[in-house]
Design brief:
Keywords: Coiled coil. With 181 residues, this protein is mainly alpha-helical. Helices cover 81% and strands 0% of the residues. Helix 2 packs antiparallel against helix 3. The longest helix has 123 residues. The two termini are 99 Å apart.
């Protein structure tokens, strides 16, 4: 931002002396000098006064022009900042849009993963049920095997004591029947 510097107008010492020489009457118009008895001097004073007025108006116009130029400079700076802010805002909006799109993609991926996880949980529960079923079957098979071994031991005992071959055949048939279950 440009720093405002005071404008130094050239100082005319003759002009300052003329202004000091002008005498104003408190009762008359403050802007007009007192007329002097000499018409040439009076015309000279009026001419000097007119030059002073022109100089004053020139200075005012110069200052107004300078202020106008400063205002235009400030306006140009503000427009640059506005363009930069607008560009930054559009970039931020684009970034937010990209992040929103990324979040939507992550949400969709998360839903897919949750569906996959639900399928895996269902499969896991089915496998657990199957494992429990197999354990029950193993337990039944183990119990049947124990029963068979008991019956076989009883048959061997009976064979040693009774000796009939029919008991052995019955026990072996029972073992085959239980194995096929």
């Amino acid at each position: 931002m440009p720093v405002e510097t005071p404008i130094k107008m050239p100082v005319d010492s003759k002009q300052i002396k003329r202004k000091r020489q002008l005498v104003y009457d408190d009762d008359s118009d403050a802007e007009q000098p007192q007329p002097s008895p000499d018409p040439a001097q009076h015309l000279q004073e009026r001419l000097d006064y007119a030059h002073d007025q022109v100089d004053f108006k020139t200075r005012v116009a110069f200052l107004q022009k300078h202020k106008h130029e400063q205002a235009q400079s400030k306006l140009a700076d503000a427009e640059k900042k506005l363009r930069l802010s607008t560009f930054s805002l559009s970039m931020a909006k684009a970034l937010v849009h990209d992040k929103d799109k990324e979040i939507d993609e992550l949400k969709a991926s998360n839903k897919e993963k949750q569906a996959e996880l639900a399928k895996l949980k269902t499969t896991n529960e089915e496998m657990q049920a199957e494992i429990e079923s197999l354990r029950a079957q193993v337990e039944v098979t183990t119990q049947n095997e124990a029963d068979l071994l008991t019956k076989l031991a009883m048959a061997e005992c009976a064979l040693e004591h009774d000796g009939p071959a029919t008991m052995l055949a019955d026990a072996l048939a029972e073992v085959d029947r239980l194995r096929h279950q």
